[in-house]
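protien #1 (seq + structre)
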Amino acid sequence: MAFSRISITLPRPLLVEADRRARALGRSRSWVLADALRAYLAGSAAPRVSEAIPPTYAAQEVAAARLRHLKHDLALPPAERLRRVSELAALARPGGREGRRHQIIGFDSYEDFYAWKKARRAGA
C-alpha cells in the first residue's frame, strides 16, 4: 500500500486526546487518525465532536500583514527594490553546495519509518 504524507492543523485538545488514544491502543498517532478517517468515510464514525469556539488560524492577520508589506515594498524606488531582490537571490543560493539539500524527517513510529524506507528503496 502506498502512503502519502500530509500536514493538518488540529486544536491542541483534540491532538492531546488522539495521542492519549494512540498510547492506550499501542498504536501511532497516524494509525489512530487514519482509523478515525476510515470510520468517518464509512459512515460509522462515533458522534461528531463539536468545538465550542471555532479555531482561528490567524489567516486574516497574516493577509493584512502581507498586504502592508507589499504596499511598503511597492512604495520603494525601483533601484532599491532591485537591490533588495539581488540580496535575497544571493541568500537563496547556498555557497558551494549545489544540488544537495539536507532534510529532517520525523516519524510517529518505527513502522512509519520502515514503510518510508521501503518505498524510498523501491523508487531508487
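ok now protien #2
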Amino acid sequence: MNARPVADIISTVNGLHTNAECQLLSDYAAQVTDGCIVEIGSFQGLSTLILANGSAPSIPVYSIDPHEQSNSQYSDRDRVIGFQHALRLDLALRIRPVNLTSAEAGAGWRRPIGLLFVDGVHSFEAVKQDLALFLPCVLVGGLVAIHDMNLPGIAEAVAIYADKLEQVASVDVLAIYRKVKA
C-alpha cells in the first residue's frame, strides 16, 4: 500500500497539528524499521492516521488514549470519529487502539518501540511519567516525538532525559529526538 499524501489526510480529519508537524511525523514514521510506534494521546486520530499512513505496513501503531470525558473537549465520541476515519482511509488494521491511560498501559509495556509520540496530558508530571514508563522500551537509535514543547513544563520534563536523547528535528511545537543510549 502506498502512503497517501499527508495533505489528503489533513484535509479530511480534525486535528491539533499543523501541516508541517504532520509531514514531519510522517517522514519519521517512515524511518521506523523495527519495533512498533506508540502514540500517547490521539483526540480524533489525525496523528494516529499520519503515523500509520507514513509507516511500513509491518509496523503497528498503538494509540493509547482512554477517551474519557475529563473536560468539555474530549470524549468517547472522539474515538468513534477516529475509527471512522481509519476505516475510510483503509488504515484500521494497522492501528491498535489501547483504551487505557498512559500510566495504565505503560505499567506493563514491554514491546520494543521504534517511535514514541508523546501528546497526552500536557503537564510536567504527565510527560515525565510518560517518558519514565515508555522510554526504556524505545530502541537505542529509535525516535521520540514530543508535541506542545511550548507549554509550561514540557521541555523541562524532556530535559530530565537529556543524556539519553539527542534532538534531530523540530517544527512549530513538535520536537523529534533520537534515543542515543539505554
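The two ends are 34 Å apart (CA to CA).
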